[in-house]
Amino acid sequence: MKQINLFYVFILFISITACNKKLKDKKEEKKAVKTIINGGIVTSFEIYNKSESFEKKLKLRLDFLKLKESFEYNLSKEENRYTITAPFVLNKNKINSLFFSQGEIFIKKDDSIYFNSNSFKKNEISLKKVPYNKFNLKFKEKNVDKFKNFTGKNLNQNIQIYLDTTLIISPKIRGVISDGKLSISFLDSNSFNSDILYAIFNYQYENVKFEKVEQKLVLEDNGELVEIPQKYHNIYNLLWNFISSKGLTIIKNNTNFESKEELETNINIGIIRRSDFYGFLVDSNIKSISDLNETFFSFQGYLNQYNYQSLNRKIDSLKL
């Protein structure tokens, strides 16, 4: 049993190493600007109550992230409908936070809101990324004593700090805060990282209401960008379930790192295990519908081996 466990650890180590190498290679390629030419996400929405500064702030958010992630985007407008086309970068939740977050901060306790963005001096919200993510809030003078009393009543209890409807952190109050200054350290999450927060805090919208939001994923097919059909999403979800239950066993029984195809498949197993479909398209080297087909085809032998014939037939349908 010990030998088997050691073998699994060894195989997992090799797989993770292979994945990390690919991710490292991708980071080294960051200087190459990502474009929409091979695919990406198309987001459209309508706004009827926009302020005069909305378009400027949306563009400033996009330009800020563009510099950080090295990609090109296209922003177009027809009457009240906006369309943003961007390549696969970050994850979908972070992209949506960048596009749609109002930048409203709430401090809650037991589902009750005690402070909101109007409680703070907006021009004194600051964000630092070194040596760790930390943002600083300064209360308006009229709220300093209110926050002091709040912290006094809730010593050694957790509060919740939200950005819009997303929980950022739930810190414990360890002492009375009497100077009206609140410093919050946080880790990157599925919805935010420090760059996204920086863009949101510095370019806050003013009561913008987004309507008729639509998003679609597109890939190159025969020289043009097309929406990825729903059947690919469905197949990916089924493949994710298969890999979640059989991933390490697949690697154990099919370990041949001299084979470029098997190495690529093992790398994809590592990516699929931790990613939804959008995340897979971000982290993999998929550049077309044809590439996506070949990736799915590469798993058919493994599906046969474990008697997943129903999924194999769905993948076969892509050959038609």
What is the string of helix and strand elements? HEHEEHEEEEHEEEHEEHHHHHH
Strands, count: 12
The end-to-end span amounts to 45 Å
Q: What portion of residues belong to β-strands?
A: 15-25%
Kindly provide the radius of gyration, computed on alpha-carbon positions and rounded to a whole number of angstroms. 24 Å
Q: Summarize the amount of helix as a percent range.
A: 40-55%
Total helical segments: 11
- Overall pLDDT metric: 85
Structural class from helices and strands? alpha+beta
Strand arrangement within the widest β-sheet reads 2-3-1-11-12
Query: Spans of 5+ residues with little confidence (pLDDT < 50)?
Result: 6-11
Please tell me what the overall shape is. globular
Largest sheet: 5 strands, antiparallel
How many domain units?
Answer: 3
List the helices and strands and how they pair.
Blueprint (H helix, E strand, L loop, with lengths): L1 H27 L10 E9 L6 H16 L4 E5 L2 E6 L5 H9 L4 E5 L2 E4 L10 E3 L5 E5 L2 H13 L6 E4 L2 E4 L11 E5 L8 H9 L7 E12 L2 E4 L2 H24 L6 H15 L2 H7 L5 H9 L2 H6 L3 H8 L4
Antiparallel strand pairs: 1-3, 1-11, 2-3, 4-5, 4-8, 6-7, 7-10, 8-9, 11-12
Helix pairs in contact: 1-7, 2-5, 3-5, 6-7, 7-8
Structure in words:
The chain has 320 residues and is of the alpha+beta class. It has three domains: 123 residues, no CATH class; 68 residues, Alpha-Beta Plaits; 98 residues, Gyrase A, domain 2, CATH 3.30.1360. The chain contains eleven helices and twelve strands. The strands form three sheets. A five-stranded antiparallel sheet has the order 2-3-1-11-12, with no helix packed on it. The protein has a four-stranded antiparallel sheet with strand order 5-4-8-9, with no helix packed on it. The chain has a three-stranded antiparallel sheet with strand order 6-7-10, covered by helices on one side. Strand 2 and strand 3 form a beta hairpin. Helix 2 packs antiparallel against helix 5, helix 3 runs parallel beside helix 5 and helix 6 packs across helix 7. The protein is globular.
